[in-house]
């Protein structure tokens, strides 16, 4: 019982550390935030912070990695739902991306802005997750484009175009569009781009 309580407290503290780091990294930038500043935000001494993190860079990596994993999971879930309803997989992909972006906008923006601050190995891990995301989009686009006999190069161009467009959603002012309206707008843009490339 005591062990379970200690583990819960440790998990809670790790979550607090990650949330405080996200807030500060997002607000000031990764390089402008010292461990002393992070510790102060948490009411800890700088030395005791190492009981909760391996390093500042590892903390940034954990935030970016878990955000990308959660995004990929959200999209997989929506693709599965779309397939079960015989709905457009592209619309499902957009719904998963937009709804996740609305929940974790700061996390995703931090990942875009600060990815370069990661080590080469950490960047490769994130790139692998981004490739998984592209593969999910290829799956959604491929179903639609293969039925229209689009070449593989067209699918690749569309994949990059749609991912770039969805990243652009993050830069809109918060609450500019409701989730439902954003899904409709961005799905319409993606579908219009598909139609254009096939013209």
UniProtKB/TrEMBL annotation:
Residues 34-53 bind DNA. Keywords: Coiled coil, DNA-binding, Transcription, Transcription regulation. The keyword Transcription applies. Residues 119-146 form a coiled coil. It comes from the Bacteria. One of its GO terms (molecular function) is transcription cis-regulatory region binding. Residues 11-71 form the HTH tetR-type domain. InterPro entries: Homeodomain-like_sf, HTH-type_TetR-like_transc_reg, HTH_TetR. PROSITE patterns: HTH_TETR_2. This is Transcriptional regulator.
């Amino acid at each position: 019982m005591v062990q379970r309580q200690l583990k819960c407290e440790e998990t809670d503290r790790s979550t607090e550390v990650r949330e405080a780091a996200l807030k500060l990294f997002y607000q000031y930038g990764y390089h402008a935030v010292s461990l002393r500043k992070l510790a102060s935000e948490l009411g800890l001494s700088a030395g005791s912070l190492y009981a909760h993190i391996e390093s500042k860079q590892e903390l940034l990596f954990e935030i970016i990695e878990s955000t990308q994993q959660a995004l990929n999971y959200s999209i997989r879930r929506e693709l599965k739902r779309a397939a079960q309803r015989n709905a457009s997989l592209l619309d499902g992909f957009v719904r998963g991306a937009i709804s996740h972006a609305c929940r974790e906008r700061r996390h995703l923006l931090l990942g875009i802005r600060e990815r370069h601050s990661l080590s080469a190995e950490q960047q490769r891990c994130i790139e692998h997750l981004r490739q998984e995301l592209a593969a999910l989009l290829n799956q959604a686009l491929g179903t639609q484009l293969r039925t229209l006999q689009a070449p593989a190069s067209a699918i690749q161009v569309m994949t990059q175009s749609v991912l770039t467009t969805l990243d652009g959603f993050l830069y809109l002012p918060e609450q500019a569009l409701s989730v439902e309206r954003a899904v409709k707008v961005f799905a319409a843009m993606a579908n219009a781009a598909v139609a254009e490339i096939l013209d």
